[in-house]
Amino acid sequence: MDRGIQAVRPALVHLCLFSLLLNLLSFATVIYTMQVFDRVLSTRSINTLISLTVLLLLACAATALLSACRDSALRRMGIALDREVAGDLYDLVYAETLETRRLDTMHAFRDLETVRQFTASQAIAPLFDLPWIPIYVVVAFSLHVWLGLAMMAAIVVVLVLALLNEFLNRANLDRASQHAAQSQRLLDTASREAEVLHVMAMVPGFRVQWLAAHGQALGWQLAAAHLSKAIATVLKFWQQFTSFGLVALSAYLAIQGQVSGGVMFAVMFIGGACIGVVQSASSQWPVFLRARQSYGRLQALFRAAESVGPRMALPRPEGRVDVEGLAVTAPGTPHFILSQVSFSLPAGTVTAVVGPSGAGKSTLVRCLIGIWAPSLGAVRLDGSELQHWEADALGQHLGYLPQSVELLSGTIAQNIARFGPVDDAAVLAAAQLAGVHEVIQQLPRGYDTDVGEGGSALSGGQRQRIGLARAIYGDPALVVLDEPNSNLDAVGEAALAQALEVLKGRGTTCVLITHKANVLTLADYILVLKDGTVSRFGTRDEVLTPQPTPSEPKADRPAPMLRPSLAQTS
Ligand SMILES: Nc1ncnc2c1ncn2[C@@H]1O[C@H](COP(=O)(O)OP(=O)(O)OP(=O)(O)O)[C@@H](O)[C@H]1O
């Protein structure tokens, strides 16, 4: 973020300079009017009038030029800031989404948008004019003390009205944005689940919900707009009244012989300019506060990331996995999904994770590949905790096939190559190993077929098999498959079994979740999860051997890879 500020610093300096010159030039009209009234009319000098008018014309031209330059500096400032921080912010938001398991981390981009719009908009300009208000007041005081006091009173009234607007409207605007966000969420869901809504006649009910949220948002927006407009009308009246009130006061003072006649015109300009600055600055104040809040949040995000610091590069792992006293909580709750999970998997083995629905199998595999960080305990790959790895470096050594396979918009080759540089030979090898090469060749454009949004142009089975090819692309050390055969036919299942054999032969560690008994024949180890803890763990034969009933004597033989904490749970 500091880099972003550094990038816009030259533009900020230009902005200050332009504001200084523009405000100085605004006095040209005042001086011109006073000179014409007090000097030209009394001396009747046409030459002086022409000279003064030419000077004023030059001042007006300079004002127009400087305004255009200031607008251009503003636009460049917003873009420069965005360019400097957008890439880093993308990485940060992505990491935060994984860490906090929240999907609403996109607020960081809304914050960047708010800051960019603020810096690039006209909203920032009046803030640079604010330091000139005391100068206007001093000029008014120098003309006459009563004029100075009247000017100050006018400023106070404008500030009170602006604060009133902000105070009374804050609740309205908050409610409007809450309902607008809800209405947007409903729209997103409706477009994502259009088929389900249509088939099961859920559209009318959903429509009612959306209309209610949309209507509430509009209602609160309207209330806020009415109030703002009412206060703006009062402000407009007050601005006009101030200009003419100051003229009336200076005319009275001129009649009393306390000021010259030209002061009437001068004070009209100064009053108008001063109230104009106060009014536009105060109307932009909430925008400024929002931008400042957004900037603060962004800065906190960047600072937190800096405190993590760079991580050491670790060598390519062999694939040994150690899970030690692992416990994981559900997002935003103190409820543990997994607790006291401990086991070790030697490199180059296949482990099947089984257990009833909701036992925590998917949660466990998410921890195994570092998507979710442990709340307690540790998950180690070749002895190093996953959190000690640089995320991108670790990703090269991991393969993951999630339960619901989401392919990304792009070609099949790009998806298999994980959107990195497409290595044709490696893509082909991964596809052949996953047994999907023939399937891909049947598609209209082969490996160059566009998979559509989320892979929608492919069947569930095709997506799953391409997802498997993506998981094993680049020869990772650890491959984690969450129900890899849930959408597969007999041919697909045979291909999966063959792929697992080959991976095992290569020394790749494989962990797969399954509900199908036939897959267990491929496994070296079986881990049974129940209610978030390890119910059983051991070699396939050990786990598949029926446990002795309580009346039978207990086998006095711990599983070879069992850890002490696991021995208590199994
Ligand atoms: N993001 C989440 N927020 C809150 N609770 C969650 C979240 N993800 C999972 N859980 C809870 O954790 C528990 C285990 O879920 P998990 O998906 O790991 O089970 P599973 O064994 O893989 O089930 P299945 O076989 O049905 O896929 C469930 O009770 C689930 O409600």
TrEMBL record:
One of its GO terms (biological process) is protein secretion by the type I secretion system. It comes from Methylobacterium tarhaniae. Keywords: ATP-binding, Cell membrane, Membrane, Nucleotide-binding, Transmembrane, Transmembrane helix, Transport. It is found in: Cell membrane. Its main location: membrane. This is Peptidase. The lineage of its organism: Bacteria, Pseudomonadati, Pseudomonadota, Alphaproteobacteria, Hyphomicrobiales. GO terms for cellular component: plasma membrane; type I protein secretion system complex. It is a multi-pass membrane protein. Belongs to the ABC transporter superfamily. NCBIfam families: type_I_sec_PrtD. Residues 540-570 are annotated as: Disordered. Residues 15-290 form the ABC transmembrane type-1 domain. Pfam families: ABC_tran. GO terms for molecular function: ABC-type transporter activity; ATP binding; ATP hydrolysis activity; ATPase-coupled lipid transmembrane transporter activity.
